[in-house]
Amino acid sequence: MPTPVESGTSELRDPRDPRDPFDVAVVGAGPAGLAAAVTAAAGGRSVLLLDAGERPGGQFWRHPPPAPGSAEGEDTVRVHHDGARFAALRRALAHHVARGRLTHRPGHQVWLVTRDEDGFLIESTPVHPGTAPVTRRARARALILCPGAADRQLPVPGWTLPGVMAAGGAQALWQGQRALAGRRVLVAGTGPFLLSVAGGLAEAGARVVGVWEAGSPRAWASRLPAVARVPAKAVEGLGHVATLARHRVPYLTRTVVREVLGEDRVRAARPARLDAAGRPGPAGDEVPVDLVALGWGFTPSLELPLQLGAATRLDADGSLVVTVDDEQRADIPGLWVAGEATGVGGAALGVAEGTLAGLSAAGRPTEGRAARRLRARIAAHRAFARAMHLAHPVPAGWSDWLRDDTVVCRCEEVDAATVRAAHDTLGADDARTVKMLTRCGMGWCQGRVCGLATALLASHHAGRAPTEADLAATAARPLAFPVTLGELAELGDEEGGFGGDAVGAGEG
Amino acid sequence: MNGRAREGGAAGGGAAADDLSFDVAVVGAGAVGAATAFFAARAGLRVAVLDRGAPGGGTSSAGEGNVLVSDKDIGPELDLARHSQRVWREELAEHGHHWEFESKGGVVVAATLASRDALRALTARQRAAGVVALDVGPDELGALEPGLRPGLAGGAHYPEDAQVQPVLLVAHLLRLARAAGATVLPHEPVTGLLRSGERVTGVRTPRRSVVAPAVVNAAGTWAGEVAALAGVRLPVLPRRGFVLVTEPLPPTIRHKVYAAEYVGDVGSSDAALQSSPVIEGTPAGTVLIGSTRERVGFDRRPSRAALGALARGALGLFPALHAVRAIRAYHGFRPYCPDHLPVIGPDPRAPGLWHACGHEGAGIGLSAGTGQLLAQALTGGPTALDLAPFAPDRKGLAA
């Protein structure tokens, strides 16, 4: 058994015996997870907050370590437009940690959750092994999963060149490490997030040579009522537009990257206009760049909910998300899910959902006026998110810009022609079969990068829309992250009274 | 089988436009169904293969692709395995590269003197039955598999053991079957059987009727349900197994390596979790780690006990894998019969219904022989191997 001594960043030692269950465990310390954890702790519950990040905030509120001599948190209020909300949650986190109600374990990657009659068993592994002793195992009566989302990516010729990044990755590099990934930057893909990335990089000193937006602003016109319900979002968007105008960043709509050019790294990109059916036209002139940041929205991280067998649905952006009720409960007893995993919608929605989940999991009233206001805010943000998703779809004809030799799966080096042959020659008509025949999505990243493309291509070749099953085939991971056989060997080996699993009769 | 059914017109009229007519309807497009379809089509029969899901998407997609003689004691299953070896290596040899047929050989290791002695007795029986089984002393094991932990009591080397990639196997067998005239109907669950008195005369799906004087039940774990549609009992039960997959490694493990205890676990009928290590490299560089067996119905959630047992088993044989990372785990349900023998041949209780199911964890390896033998029987010829031990109404399947 690992020693139950807590790690690093928290001053407090965590003397808790891992056999002793927490009332509530929260996985993920982004907006939803932070809100859920502090809300449950405020309700008098013992709370465990597990997060892969070294500092709370998740992807939305990523921030660098404090400069020497300054306090944690000063910087973020300036960096993030809703920094005040983040600062308040962080103060609440520190408050509950200091009173011993909340145990924060940063740097812990959760890779397996299972459920038995006593609640949930959670296995985690240190993100940076060897830095400090960690508690790998925890038990909880209730579980709130707030796993967030990852950049959605689509292959395009040249996308494997160094200098092509996911838009969120380029932003994270700046926000987390104050590093600029390039000097002449092209931001492309679809959605308002591109504006945020372009604005941030321009403010940071990069020359943003363009934002190529696949969608059309006109798509928003019919959806203004949803926008009007969340004025803060419109203000936020206008702020980004103003920033781009100040830096004279050209903004092109119905425009995509047709190909990225370069030998050892990115040298240029060529645009293409989309026609009314979402199909790209011929490639235009080269635009010299040294960084291409591509953003096609976000894919919710569903590994952990799917390990527990939670029911899912397809959201308006085509993502697989967890189905929850009006208290953020999944269909598994004791399980709540909040944030992007229930539908991509941003930090404010995540905070509202996390708060509601924290109330519900702590057994606090979810019927009063405050709870009603929360639900109204959630409904408004979801309506806005839906409008956004519908205005910024993945172009229907995106696969036209693939060439036969365009790599779809980088880990296993599977190209577009191979994926197509799985259908044309071998009759594969679903994502799972394509994956097993071609190894597309079966490498190190287990489909995190190419999963969406694999699902979209498999269904496109079969002449139909992608289904939940196509997406689940690239989203389900019985091991959420790679883990050593040494760590796995401790599973099912719990002392009596802990785990409740039959102990395997393995040799050796 | 005599007489070809005519295209299109289902007997008795009133057929829907989508109705089809064949000589044989194979229910289930896993390895066994695909092999049956391939051999039957090549024998000149008009064949339809139906699957409720994607071809190769059930148990065939969830194993390791074993083509083994080593794990079978003498008896009908070993006879079928040896017959299948000939089919793999002769009739199917020209296609083997499509499904990554690799004659890598198996190495069975014994940790204790007692298990080594039991293994020696097994290899002696197998040799007498014609299997190439070479006894290996403890000092020679390192030359076969350098990563094995020292101190093992001994082992055996089976050069005939082989491996295929089962999903590729199914896809290419069906491609070859289609080239020989077969029709593949994926995503068409069989919801009922067409009957003419006692006789089974075809299958019904939500989309159509498929008329066929011979219906082959190759539905794997669900074979019992197909049999029930004909009113006959076939005790095929799911027996869950997990496999761990490591990150790609440089060639580390050359053979299929497993513990002598595996043979005993395969033959056991206990419902509780059993685990014995089975470790092998693949052409993709990943290492596959099996095996567990437990009867838990169709529970699809990850099992802590099973995953832990797999890792402990692997480290017990190959300690250097300790820091190697597993990137994936998968599971499947072996179609298991109480007497651990498959069911192959016509069902006298429901004329027209044939079975090719219940191969448990050996279905990939036995698929080639099963399909070839069944095609011989369906065309009315003599079979290269006596099918009597696999009869659906044998004593071992009685309640």
TrEMBL record, chain A:
InterPro entries: BFD-like_2Fe2S-bd_dom_sf (IPR041854), FAD/NAD-bd_sf (IPR036188), FAD/NAD-binding_dom (IPR023753), Metab_Enz_Cyan_OpOx_G3PDH (IPR051691), Opine_Oxase_asu/HCN_bsu (IPR017224). Residues 1-10 have a biased composition (Polar residues). GO terms for molecular function: oxidoreductase activity. Residues 1-21 are annotated as: Disordered. Residues 11-21 have a biased composition (Basic and acidic residues). Keywords: Oxidoreductase. It holds the Pfam family Pyr_redox_2. CDD domains: GlpA-like_Fer2_BFD-like. Residues 22-342 form the FAD/NAD(P)-binding domain. This is Thioredoxin reductase. It comes from Streptomyces zhaozhouensis. The lineage of its organism: Bacteria, Bacillati, Actinomycetota, Actinomycetes, Kitasatosporales.
TrEMBL record, chain B:
InterPro entries: FAD-dep_OxRdtase (IPR006076), FAD/NAD-bd_sf (IPR036188). One of its GO terms (molecular function) is oxidoreductase activity. The keyword Membrane does not apply. It comes from the Bacteria. One of its GO terms (cellular component) is cytoplasm. The keyword Nucleus does not apply. This is Glycine/D-amino acid oxidase. It comes from Streptomyces zhaozhouensis.
